[in-house]
Specification:
alpha/beta; 4-stranded parallel beta sheet; 10 helices; 9 strands; about 30% helix
Length: about 280
């Protein structure tokens, strides 16, 4: 059995014990970029390796491509092979933030053509809450032989496509930021306030229960259909501030059985890097 969306701690534990899984700790803090690795070294799921959002899960920002641009596919595939990834290996990612950093890795591995990847539902808290032990310090790394698919297995759109969509309306943009940021409230991470014209708002936090686990598939499906308003999942493009929390909505739609939506990786931070691009405000 393989896991391709979510996995719970009870199912992950025997895979960890039998060393039949490659686990990645993706915790991060935008306000303290070293906190994730410090937390990892202090205590992590046994055997897990650490992946840093800035260094491992992003390319190099150039002032016009957003805060967390995607790396080159070939470079990221090589990095994953260095960390032990091979075809057919089950991968599990987790964090301490409701899964939105972990979902970035989930999407990126699918982008490379690796489907057997899941997010630990409830993150590290679910693991420790189940009474399972932690390890500390660095873990040994064994090289894998992973090779990416010739073409991306999941789709992304670039800023030119988003600009063209202002006229064509070929797809619906779903913004994962909070309702306040979407409406135009200033935020320290944003160069400008508001949203891409025509976008709908689905804050990623609404995908989670009060306990920090994903809501049931039927509830997620109902909620997303209300946002989509009859538009098919294939006509949906997800964005957020910098292409990270948008992947949480992508994962939630997959859990809900609404497959085929796409990511705008540059997101709001790329869109607002050019002051000539249109900006809307308000809740619509």
């Amino acid at each position: 059995m393989t896991y391709q969306t979510l996995i719970d701690a009870a199912c992950l534990a025997p895979l960890v014990e039998q060393q039949k899984v490659l686990v990645f700790d993706c915790r991060f803090d935008l306000s303290d970029v070293d906190a994730g690795r410090v937390g990892y070294l202090s205590g992590h799921i046994p055997g897990a390796l650490y992946l840093d959002l800035d260094r491992d899960l992003s390319g190099t920002p150039d002032g016009g491509n957003g805060r967390h641009p995607l790396p080159e596919r070939a470079e990221f595939a090589a990095r994953m092979a260095e960390l032990g990834l091979s075809r057919g290996v089950q991968v599990v990612s987790y964090d301490t933030s409701g899964g939105f950093y972990a979902s970035r890795l989930w999407w990126m591995l699918r982008w490379l053509g690796h489907r057997d990847v899941a997010v630990l539902d409830g993150g590290l808290a679910a693991w420790t809450g189940a009474g399972l032990a932690l390890a500390s310090g660095d873990e040994p790394v064994g090289r894998g032989d992973f090779e990416m698919s010739p073409e991306p297995a999941v789709a992304a759109v670039d800023v030119a496509a988003v600009e063209a969509n202002l006229e064509s309306g070929n797809f619906l943009i779903v913004d994962a930021r909070t309702a306040e940021r979407f409406a135009g409230a200033p935020h320290p991470l944003d160069d400008a306030s508001g949203h891409i014209p025509g976008a709908a708002n689905r804050p990623f936090q609404r995908n989670l229960t009060a306990e920090g686990t994903f809501k049931p598939a039927a509830e997620l499906a109902r909620d997303f259909r209300a946002v989509l308003g009859g538009i098919s999942p294939e006509q949906v493009v997800h964005q957020c501030g910098s292409g990270v929390t948008a992947t949480h909505n992508l994962l939630a739609m997959e859990v809900a059985g609404l497959t085929g939506s796409r990511l705008y990786p540059g997101s709001w931070s790329e869109w607002t890097s050019d002051t000539t691009r249109s900006i809307a405000s308000g809740s619509d």
